[in-house]
Amino acid sequence: MTDADAWAAEAEDRVLDKALELAPTMGWTRLTARAAGRACGLTPADVELLMPNGAADLAALLARRHDARALAALGDVDPQALKVRERVRAALAARIEAAAADGPAVRRWAGWLALPHHLPLAARLLWASADALWRWAGDTATDENHYSKRAILGGVLAGALAIRLQQGEAAAMAFVDARIDNVMTFEKWKATTRLRPQDALRDLAVALGKLRYG
């Protein structure tokens, strides 16, 4: 990593930390990114360099942070010692708790992503989170199931996180368990999954709306 890359990574972390403090009252906006940067001693030009897309870049940083924290929490778990459904459950639990730790800001994050013109970004971020979890779980599928699994898991993650923030961990994991029982077996995926892009976006919008409005 170059000095410039190291500076950028450290600055992004500091700005994100401050944005998480500001977001519950300021919302998830470009102004929040600018205010967070200013509070960290950065110039407007620095913030523009780090986050040219403003709130979108900030949203991606938060999703990647939560992904990294979930994988770190799973570091002592051997996925090969677990059944597939147990791996999926453990991965989802870790990712949900990573996000729940920033609950007030995550509600604002979700509300911003739930806006229609931000749904494509929301889908990409949740797909990336699901991909990281599936890779940890040892998934090596390369056919169409590679994509349907990630789309389904992303929807489960969004729905479970909404429940976690509203009703607590037990209710969220009960939802996860029910979803695993209903749709998360390889044979059922292969036999019944006919997932269309518009269906995935619709389900994602519903889950994010629950996060935003309760």
Radius of gyration using CA atoms only: 18 Å
- Distance from N terminus to C terminus (CA atoms, Å) equals 42 Å
User: How much helix, percentage-wise, in residues?
Assistant: over 70%
Class inferred from helices and paired strands? mainly alpha
Unreliably modeled segments: none
Strand runs, count: 0
Per the principal axes of the C-alpha atoms, what is the gross shape?
Answer: globular
The major pleated sheet works out as: none
Strand content: under 5%
**How many helical elements?**
11
- Give helix and strand order, one letter per element, not per position: HHHHHHHHHHH
Mean pLDDT: 88
Characterise this structure.
The chain contains eleven helices and no strands. It is mostly helical and 214 residues long. The longest helix has 24 residues, at 3-26. The radius of gyration is 18 Å and the shape is globular. The mean pLDDT is 88.
